[in-house]
């Protein structure tokens, strides 16, 4: 915090306004369900100081405006890529839509467990995800298995409108349903 205060004293009022503008953009509260997390304020301070120092060093080098903008853009892209705010990586599952009729779910389940390539071994009799033995739960397991396996390769959680994405964990009892980033 002392570093921020000393930088603030040295910065002109115009640069201070820039810092506060950047700070407002990079600091926000995320509320999801009951979880409340604040994206790192110290990280925002660090980025603000980095940008101010970068801008002042560009002015000292008498670079053309176009070169300054290109360098600033590259720095900005690097800054965005380097952010690792895990608050945005909430786990998600693909489950059967409760309003879908059983015959449509059965057709989608057959595809997911067959040509779709989902791992449906845990919904077989005497396996952890067999109970409750109903179409919605078995289809949810198969849809999620397919989607987790192929979502990063273009696979979707659609199944002809029989499925939907949720952030509520559908696991129950001994049946643990995976959610991969």
TrEMBL record:
Keyword check for Secreted: no
All copies of domain X8, residue ranges: 92-177
InterPro entries, alphabetized: X8, X8_dom_prot
Membrane topology: Lipid-anchor; GPI-anchor
Transmembrane segments: 65-82
The keyword Protease is assigned to this record: no
One Gene Ontology term, aspect cellular component: plasma membrane
Keyword terms of this UniProt record: Cell membrane, Disulfide bond, Glycoprotein, GPI-anchor, Lipoprotein, Membrane, Signal, Transmembrane, Transmembrane helix
Locations listed in the record: Cell membrane
Protein name: X8 domain-containing protein
Organism: Dendrobium nobile (Orchid)
